[in-house]
Amino acid sequence: MTTVKEIARNSESMIFLKDGRYFDQVIQVLKDAGFPDNSIFAIGQDLGTDHEIIRKMTLGEVNDDTLTTKYFSILVVKRA
Q: Smallest Cα–Cα separation from 42: which of 28, 65, 61?
């Protein structure tokens, strides 16, 4: 995750694919890399199925109460 954090420090946007195992670490890396709480956060789950979910919120709103599962197909964050 050290490399990801370094890339995040120098990026305006980050995209993560299918790696819910590291969801909590990804959120922490983004915050540690300076992505402010008002950064736009979008997550897609079960894309292309009848159960597709697309959620958009701010990075600061992301917590266990706002997301029912930490699985994702794609996660996109844009620095505010």
A: 61
Amino acid at 44: G
How many domains, the chain?
1
Which positions of the chain have pLDDT values less than 70? 68-70
Containing structural domain, residue 58: 2-78
Q: How many CA atoms lie within 13 A of 30 on its CB side?
A: 28
pLDDT score at 68: 63
Element (H, E) at 26: helix 23-32
Q: What is the CATH number of the domain that holds 7?
A: 3.30.950.10
pLDDT, residue 67, reads: 74
What is residue 47's DSSP assignment? T
Question: What's the pTM value of the predicted model, to 2 decimals?
Answer: 0.85
The neighbour count for residue 25, using CB atoms within 10 Å, is: 13
